[in-house]
Amino acid sequence: MHLAEVNLELYIPIGMLVVMAVLFVTANMVLTHLMGPRTLGANKDVPYESGMNPIGSARKRFNVRFYILAMTFLVFDVEIIFLYPWAVTFAKLEPRSPEATLFLARIMFFIATSIVAYVYAWRKGVFRWD
Amino acid sequence: MPAWLPSWVTPQLMMSMLVIFVVVNSIAGGALYLILLERRVAAWIQDRCGPNRVGPMGLLQPIADAIKLLFKEEYIPRRADRVLFLLAPGLTVIPALISFAVIPWAGTLQIAGESVAVAGATVNIGIIYLVAVTSLGIYGVVLGGWASNNKYAFLGSLRAAAQMVSYEIPMGLSILVLILTAATVHPAEMVARQLEGQWFLLHQPLAAIIFFTCMLAEANRLPFDLAESESELVGGWHTEYSSLKWAFFFMGEYGHILVGSAFFTVMFLGGWSINPFTGDDLPASGGLVMILLQVGVVMGKVLALIGLIMALRWTLPRFRYDQVMRLAWEGMIPASLFMLLVTSVYVYLGLCADGLMWTGSLGVIFLIWLGRPLVARKTAPNHRIPLAGSRFSPS
Prior knowledge:
The complex is a heterodimer. In chain A, about 60% of the residues lie in helices and about 0% in strands. Chain A is mainly α. Chain A has one domain (about 5-125): Methane Monooxygenase Hydroxylase, Chain G, domain 1 (Up-down Bundle), CATH 1.20.58. Chain A is flat, with a radius of gyration of 26 Å. By secondary structure, chain B is mainly α. Chain B has a domain at about 75-330. Helices cover about 60% and strands about 5% of the residues of chain B. Chain B has helices at about 10-45, 60-70, 80-100, 125-135, 135-145, 150-180, 185-195, 200-205, 205-220, 230-235, 245-265, 290-315, 320-350, 355-370; strands at about 105-110, 115-120, 285. In chain B, strands 2-1-3 form a three-stranded mixed β-sheet. In chain B, helix 3 (about 80-100) runs parallel beside helix 11. Classes of the chains: A mainly alpha, B mainly alpha.
């Protein structure tokens, strides 16, 4: 579909809904800010950590084994986004036609490359959490 | 239409505004009533009474709760990041509210010579919009936990980030499998395919199971609610929140359950289709009575799914963290990738259009079941500490 054919009027309700949702949230936040009581206390600003005095700040570096996991996520998420238009087009093609064969072969290669990356990450121990 | 209106005010736009108005209000109120329902179901399962004092059968309890929360002190910790702390509840609740725009609640309404679709917006990229918007909900959790400057909140938000990111992938892949089956990303067309033929649940049972599990994980529901696991992390990412900001997190959670159930209904349970097997079904368009009946069918399916989710919550124990991550990365991602390959081959051979997709899906389930003993069981990561007198004692 060309960009000129996209009917932007269909998106007006979504825009209005976004405005409504933002207004709903803002209005409620302001309302509760104005209506609620305000008290001060000696220990009120201490973070609640089960009644213990907190040791140090919570803004610390923490190993979540997250970096490589995030990279793997990116690989797969981008792949999925690429596959959406492919899926719609491929499912509308004539079965077993030469065009469909080309489509299938291309996407098989594409998925195979990401499976190689996935197996590599698995063997590397990215998914081990213990 | 009257002539004085501008040209972009179409009957469809007015219908969309009506649907959006009704839906937004019923989500804001419905989330509160879902909390009441949840508490009553919990009480029923645990053989208690539950909240039954405020009004008949406790039906006014949500209103009392809302008024109470509105008048509570709105507290911002001094050492918190103020901007992000205020932004986080909004970022949780706004995606939950706006994601409903594309869900078709019924077929085309024929009224006064016009035909209008009963949906917030009839855009042709509906499914992609849903996927995009529902995954925005993660920002509220992560930012809220980080901005609180509380270690429990921090740990909860980290868990939520890793968990939601991981379950995003099998969810996307199972939706992809369904798009291959349906050959469209338009939600109303997807329902139309299921009205003509079978529900996609019958074509793609494995994708339905994977999608449902990922939906629970994305909404942070038990058995996947590690982000707020109250026995470990106090309240998880919303430990430091109070007043209506705290209520927004709950509204976001129940909103995600609602939109997830509606999404599942449209994709797998055929929307307002009442016959799972053949094309003898409700028509795709009709008068006011038929449309109301169709809305009733959709709402009935959504409520049944919510009931299932609540029953699951009080039946299953919570996963351990490494189990959650292993289920996503070593279980559901390979399964859904395999299912994607099998589905594309079926589509290529034309078997999918012949209605034989269920053989592929059941075949993959059978292969997973066969391959189950081959997956090496790792040793338990819990180290038992020998303690004299306990049942773990070595003697």
